[in-house]
Specification:
With 172 residues, the chain is mainly alpha-helical. Helices cover 76% and strands 0% of the residues.
Length: 172
């Protein structure tokens, strides 16, 4: 779930950055994600201390399927002193890691072996950490709580399936 946060137009954010953010939000709404990412990057150069702009740039990168860039920008934005930004950053990082695990496991997760199993579980555990960080900042964050429980149940289920599959292969 991608959520853009409008950059504040307070005295600490230059007008040029606010204009770039407005352009980026409009481009994002028009599904012009790469262009939105560029607009947010330009705004971030003007106001590098603004974590909200970094967050919006990360959301645009994620929407443009530039997951590595999104992850890096979310991590930078996580250092924000604003709990609302940090909360959303950790939630989005959790979603990003969970999606990476899902992608790594592919269409038939039960057939995964060795390194794929280990890497996917590590990605899911990273997602768990981010959802827990979200809940530490906002104990009422329902989506983070829901996703945390789903991942916990999924890890238990898939590891059980892998154990059964391995036993079956050993018998054969």
């Amino acid at each position: 779930a991608i959520l853009l946060l409008p950059a504040s137009s307070g005295a600490d954010t230059p007008d040029a950055a606010v204009t770039k953010v407005r352009d980026g939000i409009q481009q994002f709404r028009n599904s012009e994600f790469s262009q939105a990412e560029k607009s947010f990057a330009e705004a971030s150069k003007i106001a590098p201390e603004n974590a909200t702009i970094l967050f919006d740039e990360a959301c645009a990168a994620l929407a443009a399927k530039d997951n590595d860039q999104a992850r890096e920008l979310f991590r930078k934005a996580a250092l924000a002193k604003t709990s609302t930004v940090s909360e959303q950053v950790h939630y989005n990082l959790g979603c990003l890691e969970a999606d990476a695990a899902r992608e790594k496991l592919g269409d038939d997760p039960v057939s995964a072996t060795g390194d794929v199993r280990e890497e996917s579980v590590q990605l899911m555990l990273a997602a768990v950490r981010h959802y827990r960080d979200t809940l530490a900042l906002n104990a009422q964050h329902r989506d983070a709580r829901h996703n945390l429980e789903l991942i916990r149940l999924y890890i238990k289920h898939i590891q059980s399936q892998w154990t059964q599959r391995d036993k079956q292969k050993n018998r054969e």
